[in-house]
Amino acid sequence: MKNPMKQKPQAAVVAVMIAMISLSISPSVTASGRTSGAQDRNDGGRSGKPVDDRTDLMKAASRGDLVKVKQLLAAGAEVNEATDGGVTALMGAAGAGRLAVTEELLARGAEVNAKTKAGYTALMTAALNGQVETVKLLLAKGAEVNAEDSSKQTALGYAREKRHLEIVELLKAAGAKE
């Protein structure tokens, strides 16, 4: 059995990022159209309470609510808007395996290779979370198979760490470097 202290921390960071995408915090709408949780966004972050800066589109995408995603996009929601950390609706949908929503976002112009501030991509989140069909879709739509995050980790590395062998093979077949 592997020593958990010797495992790469990147997978844990991405897992936390995905968990944050899926948070369900009671929202209040701010003037920017973003939502915030228990913290007043005007306190400069001094309260120490988490701030949920996801848009309604990001939340609906993460939940897999295709009807709401279509409504929000029709009403003018920006498909590529990102949180302060760079997380997009596509990343949330892809990481959660919301295939229909991922397809819709891509069809509406979502940037398949968008990166968070730490360099994570939708392909990385899908690979990390074992979302085989989503990985296939992202690759078919031009996802950069060898994109690296800030710690030089790739989707292949994340899939290997989590032992998602089918995804490892898909990525290698798409040209992922060892």
Features:
178 residues; mainly alpha; 9 helices; 2 strands; globular
In a few lines, what is going on in this structure?
By secondary structure, the protein is mainly alpha-helical.
Share in β-strands: under 5%
The separation of the N and C termini measures 24 Å
Helix content: 40-55%
Series of H and E elements: HEEHHHHHHHH
What's the assembly state of these chains? single chain
**Structure summary, number of beta strands:** 2
Estimated radius of gyration: 16 Å
What form results from the Cα inertia axes?
globular
Spatial order of the strands forming the largest sheet: 1-2
Mean pLDDT: 82
Indicate the low-confidence ranges by residue numbers.
Answer: 1-9, 19-46
The assigned structural class equals: mainly alpha
Structure report:
By secondary structure, the chain is mainly α. It contains 9 helices and 2 strands; from the N terminus they run αββαααααααα. It has helices at 10-21, 56-63, 66-74, 89-95, 99-107, 122-128, 132-140, 155-161, 165-173; strands at 28-29, 35-36. A two-stranded antiparallel ribbon has the order 1-2. α2 packs antiparallel against α3 (66-74), α7 (132-140) packs parallel to α9 (165-173) and α8 (155-161) packs antiparallel against α9. The model is unreliable at 1-9 and 19-46 (pLDDT under 50).
